[in-house]
Amino acid sequence: MEEQALTALILRQREAAAAVTILSLSLPNKKRSLQRKKKILYWIAAVSAAFVILAVVLLAVLVPRRFSQNQSQLQSQSINTTVVTTTTFAIITTGRTNAAATSTTTNTNTNTSTNTTEPSPGKILNLSAWELQLPIAGNMSRVAIITPPALNSVSNQFFQPAPAGLSAVDFYTPVTGVTTSDSLNPRTELRQLNQDGSLAFWSYQGSYALQVILTVELFPANVSNGAGGVIVCQLFSAAVINGPEYVVRAYPNFVQLERGSNANGSVDKQVLVPNYTAGQQMKITFSVMNGKLTAAVDIGTTVTTTIDSADDYYFKAGSYCQTQESADNGCKVRIFSIQLYGFPGALAFPPN
Ligand SMILES: *[C@@H]1O[C@H](CO)[C@@H](O)[C@H](O)[C@H]1NC(C)=O
Ligand SMILES: *[C@@H]1O[C@H](CO)[C@@H](O)[C@H](O)[C@H]1NC(C)=O
Ligand SMILES: *[C@@H]1O[C@H](CO)[C@@H](O)[C@H](O)[C@H]1NC(C)=O
Ligand SMILES: *[C@@H]1O[C@H](CO)[C@@H](O)[C@H](O)[C@H]1NC(C)=O
Ligand SMILES: *[C@@H]1O[C@H](CO)[C@@H](O)[C@H](O)[C@H]1NC(C)=O
Ligand SMILES: *[C@@H]1O[C@H](CO)[C@@H](O)[C@H](O)[C@H]1NC(C)=O
Ligand SMILES: *[C@@H]1O[C@H](CO)[C@@H](O)[C@H](O)[C@H]1NC(C)=O
Ligand SMILES: *[C@@H]1O[C@H](CO)[C@@H](O)[C@H](O)[C@H]1NC(C)=O
């Protein structure tokens, strides 16, 4: 849309410049030199405008690329450090902006070293369309993020294979973890990418789905209805609200679909699983089709709601711990399978 507006602007300026040329040819000499000056000024203005537009476009294209390059370069060394508060990555956390990490809850006792004798999560789940956000500080006061291909070989205390015998990955978030500036709550969470590694943003009009098979292994100690719990997957709204459009949030005894605070969907909160218990496996299917979101849980019910139109979206999944307490505990979500549908290179829509 922005590009179209800019193109229209350039076209209008060209038309105006052409009009000035035609006009000046039909004018007497006296007026013609005045017109020539005007014409020169006009062209100077048009050329300057073109440079500004070019600069804006280049910035828009190059800045995100620079961030992701920094991320991949920094992965191996950053994940090796033991005191992560000084470890740094560039990060893009939410929406189109680079959200800074808060330092209000800083983890000083964090070992993110990779256990090389252990298989990494990337050998268990196909993580090629995801980047990982961690509850620790990253570069430039942002939370740490790990992108592919480094993500394939990363294993640490927040993100590691489930205990022997299980083909699953544990996403652990300490309640005291570092948060993004947009949130009071820490996360160990995957954020959807495109095939080429760029951040995914897709239209509400498409047909796309995320299917995750998971168990919630550990809830934060401080939970009550309406507070606490853990968000296990999100439909994230990029442009309009730059926040969650809908989330699936698990509490120690139930699971529900919740609307983001600024979104306009038809459902506010609706229970998906009325009788959840920690460790119980569920298959969550989050499908978007023609501006509607359907959330289905195999051990519960299905809810369909509208989502905000004219917005871009992406999926997230993991353990986003919804608590602000300072006690020494956390949230753990165990993911057995995560699949995307309807995207280039992904499985065909709809999922089973
Ligand atoms: C990571 O740690 C290992 C073992 O401590 C060391 O051999 C390696 O050089 C470190 N890598 C980086 C990039 O610091
Ligand atoms: C960090 O974790 C690695 C692998 O899990 C281990 O080898 C190392 O001893 C740990 N370091 C500290 C300081 O705990
Ligand atoms: C690394 O992983 C192996 C295999 O799971 C395990 O036996 C070992 O204790 C781990 N080492 C550390 C330091 O966590
Ligand atoms: C953090 O990112 C900046 C800018 O890209 C870079 O100059 C700096 O070296 C990075 N910090 C570390 C510790 O790698
Ligand atoms: C929600 O709807 C109101 C009224 O139609 C509108 O002003 C607002 O921008 C909408 N919010 C979003 C996030 O779409
Ligand atoms: C949970 O509730 C559903 C009905 O809502 C019921 O069919 C199911 O048996 C219950 N499961 C457990 C473990 O209680
Ligand atoms: C528990 O959570 C509530 C709501 O998030 C918060 O107001 C309260 O301070 C927390 N209690 C503790 C002990 O952290
Ligand atoms: C992993 O996922 C990507 C993107 O969804 C897909 O293109 C690729 O084929 C998958 N790889 C495997 C081995 O399934």
TrEMBL record:
This is Alginate lyase 2 domain-containing protein. It holds the Pfam family Alginate_lyase2. The keyword RNA-binding does not apply. Signal peptide: none annotated. InterPro entries: Alginate_lyase_2, ConA-like_dom_sf. Residues 100-120 are annotated as: Disordered. Keywords: Membrane, Transmembrane, Transmembrane helix. Residues 100-117 have a biased composition (Low complexity). Residues 125-340 form the Alginate lyase domain. The keyword Membrane applies. Gene3D superfamilies: 2.60.120.200. SUPFAM superfamilies: Concanavalin A-like lectins/glucanases (SSF49899). The chain crosses the membrane at residues 40-63.
